[in-house]
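Hello Y.,

Per our agreement to keep a running log of every chain we model this quarter, I'm adding this entry. I've kept the format consistent with earlier entries: sequence first, then predicted structure.
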Amino acid sequence: MVAKARKKEEGPYPFSVEEYESRLKRVRDGLQEIRADFLLVTSSVDIFYLSNFQNSGQEAFQCLIVPVDGPPHFVLRRLYFTAVYGLSWIKDGTPVPDTGEHLDVLVACLRQMGADRARIGYQDRSLSLPPAILDGLRKALPEASLVPASGLVERCRAIKSPAEISYIRRAADLSVKGMEAGIAEIRPGADENQVAAAVYDTMVRAGSEYVSAQPIVVSGSRSPPYRCVTEGRVIQDGESVWFEASASVHRYGGPIMRTISVGEPSADLKKASDVMLEALDRLLDAAGPGVTAGEVDRAARSFVEERGYGQYWLHRSGYSVGVGFPPSWTEGEVMDLKPGDRRLLLPGMVFHSVPWILLPSVGAVGNSETWTVTDDGIEVLTDTPRELRIRR
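Predicted structure for the entry above:
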């Protein structure tokens, strides 16, 4: 049943084998802290982070069994095992045929690895762990202890290596190129799909891989006002266009958001835009090593509240970014910038700051930046004008 192990090769991988081994060691250190013998990694993002395995289909259950000692072991659809052999530095695993049951194979592998009476950590916050699998494991391995272990991989992902930041920097540059191409398409009579197509086309032609989320382009206000998806709506003179996009380089993203005025901005749009631009400036000014996430959030949110727009801000003010798979480029499971969060910003962390509001009379208004924490401050990675742009 177990696929024959292949020789561990030295690449080509996005990172050195030494970096992957360091990630694995940190996860194993976390396993020892919670006195667990195995970790079932089921999140696509975390599997990729540890192994470089990825595939275009997230519909089938997949798991990387990480023992506290010994080689990690894949359990996933047979069709995807070519990607294990071709992409991953970890080669051990058991393919599951489409006529087979993932649970049965997973149980057999755990038994073969000596997990019958072990403490097995699982990612209890992962949407990629079906209840049927978890319940089945409890029934099939009654003498094992299944313990929640979300956070072991996520905390390793919080601080990026120089190589990771280089990919995010490249993705941010591609995102800006796409953003500028999208802005150039905005005019009365164009539709949202044209703008989104220009963004996507430019990013991909310039070097982006398949993105973690499609460009979001929203013109004017919606009915109800809080719908924010691209719908092909025709752009009208005198309204706003709000959009957000991120390219992807080795699955690392660098998102950016901007608000554009079609023709001269209305008084409501101009006022709201000025407030949200100032909020972004204040957030970035407050950020740096040793500052709490809550303090960064408060620097922007308190200003927006003072200006009377607090009720329209329904979102956290930022989140970690790095590895992303559809349908999202966010790493909110790693760290957020949100009210009351006492976690400290540390050098090497990367965030997408997103102060924005949904104003019924105007629509969505906001701007963002992707930035990294340095030893003595921050560095903004998305380089394009931070202002209310006007298109005619």
